[in-house]
Specification:
With 133 residues, this protein is mostly beta strands. The chain has no helices and 15 strands. The protein has one domain. A hairpin with a 3-residue loop joins strand 6 and strand 7.
């Protein structure tokens, strides 16, 4: 089972979001939650079985690299690669910079994926044809 941690200080993270079809806001890719600048978001954390976190605020540590080419998003480090297709609408994606506030509950795995119960939105960076951080 993942180990629960409590943030001793603010932790910088990012999330990949997409531009909404009805304005200049951004929403989560899978659950269509709309995010706003300086928004403070909360969520419960729920497990599916012993090791999979189904519900919570999913994000990545800053050292995780992202590459977007021809509508496919790669999130990678030395040992793994994840990809997802966004139907060549890469120009609608953004990197949402956030912090996990001090005192928040969070879990992190060996790939830099993070799930927390709180996030604060700091800003958005549009992703063009290719981005690496």
């Amino acid at each position: 089972m993942p180990i629960k941690m409590i943030a001793e200080k603010d932790i910088p993270v990012f999330k990949i979001v997409k531009k909404t079809t009805w304005g200049s806001n951004y929403e989560s890719i899978y659950y269509r939650k709309v995010y706003y600048l300086r928004e403070k978001v909360t969520s419960g954390i729920e497990f599916y079985g012993t090791y999979i976190i189904e519900k919570g605020l999913h994000s990545y540590l800053p050292e995780v690299k992202i590459i977007l080419e021809k509508g496919v998003l790669f999130i990678e480090d030395i040992s793994w690669c994840y990809m997802d297709s966004f139907e060549d609408k890469y120009y609608e994606l953004a990197k949402m910079n956030c912090i996990i506030p001090k005192g928040s509950e969070y879990y992190v795995n060996e790939r830099g994926e993070v799930v927390s119960n709180r996030l604060e939105v700091i800003g958005f960076e549009e992703i063009n044809k290719k981005i690496t951080n």
